[in-house]
Amino acid sequence: MVYKFGLIGHPIEHSLSPWIHSEFLKLAGLDGEYILYEGNQQVLPSVIKQLKEQAIDGFNVTVPYKQVIVDYLDELDPDAEILGAVNTVVNQNGKWKGYSTDGEGYVRSIVDRYPALLNRETSVLLLGAGGAARGIYRALGQQQVKRIDIANRSKEKAEDLLPLRFGNVQTSVLSYPEAELKLAEYDLVVQTTSVGMKPNVDKQIISLTNLRTQTVVSDIVYQPIMTKLLADASKCGASIHHGHAMLLYQGQLAFEKWTGKNLDVTHLVDKLENKLRGV
Fold first, then answer.
1. Checking phi first, is residue 124 left (phi over 0); if not, alpha (psi -120 to 50) or beta?
2. In the chain, where does the domain assigned CATH 3.40.50.720 lie?
3. Beta carbons of 88 and 60 less than 8 angstroms apart
4. Could you give the residue range(s) of every CATH 3.40.50.10860 domain in the chain?
5. Is 182 a catalytic residue?
6. Spatial separation of the C-alpha atoms in residues 121 and 165, rounded to whole Å
7. How many CB atoms are located within 10 Å of the residue 260 CB?
8. CATH number, span 2-100+245-277
9. Is the per-residue pLDDT at 279 higher than 80?
10. Which residues of the chain form beta strands (DSSP E)?
């Protein structure tokens, strides 16, 4: 069998997904291809028609289509339905089912690097309240951590995440200045926005003056690998977690749903980092 996978979004010409899934296919000993299907809103219906005609086995979805794609699906995974967004579609006997792997992919990446970090005593600070924060907030809650506070420029937007709360996790909504003052209370700080991404590499979302050395600081930005936030955290003596690991593990989860293969991709974290660094 030759698998057909792909990615739809705009713009995606620099996506790392083809490289990642090529590595997965080799690791699994499977034949297949991963194609980029780029197009603006006007051509999306024709792209969807093309994927249907090709009987594609599965595909990823990125901005700006994570919400729009829902209208083209036959079924939604319960978490994807709650989040209102899909980044992975599986062809199940001709029917398209949508999943969100971003949040669980993030959790897999942090557990791989820090296996004992997430437990019933863990306090987490999420920076930002956009699409990535939604999935990560729910997935961390499913790990039964004690507390997940959300800091955002607009508290109203942060409050929109509260209906996604899982179980009994405690949550407070903070401004960024309030989060800076409370920074010593957290075991994990997760930066979920695009602040610090190329070309604005000199940007940092909050000051880490009050950071504890025992805290893990995580940034989902992976261009550059070492964001200003992570460099500052490292200077403070804290542990850090790079964004490319989430990219890899959400892809691992998508590949698992497409093929049924649960791959050990730990060794690919460093390989992906080297690729990003141009090594």
1. beta
2. 103-242
3. yes
4. 2-100+245-277
5. no
6. 17
7. 8
8. 3.40.50.10860
9. no
10. 2-9, 31-38, 58-61, 75-76, 88-92, 95-99, 123-127, 147-151, 173-174, 188-191, 216-219, 239-241
Q: What tens digit of pLDDT does each residue of 140-189 get?
A: 999 999 999 999 999 999 999 999 999 889 999 999 999 999 999 999 99
Specify the 3-state DSSP secondary structure of 260. Answer: coil
Measured CA to CA, the distance from residue 259 to residue 5 in angstroms comes to: 11
For residue 150, list its beta bridge partners: 126, 173
Does domain 103-242 bear CATH number 3.40.50.720? yes
Contact 183, 211 (CB under 8 A): yes
Q: Which of 66, 97, 228, 257 is catalytic?
A: 66
Sheet holding 31-38, edge to edge: 31-38, 2-9, 58-61, 88-92, 95-99, 75-76
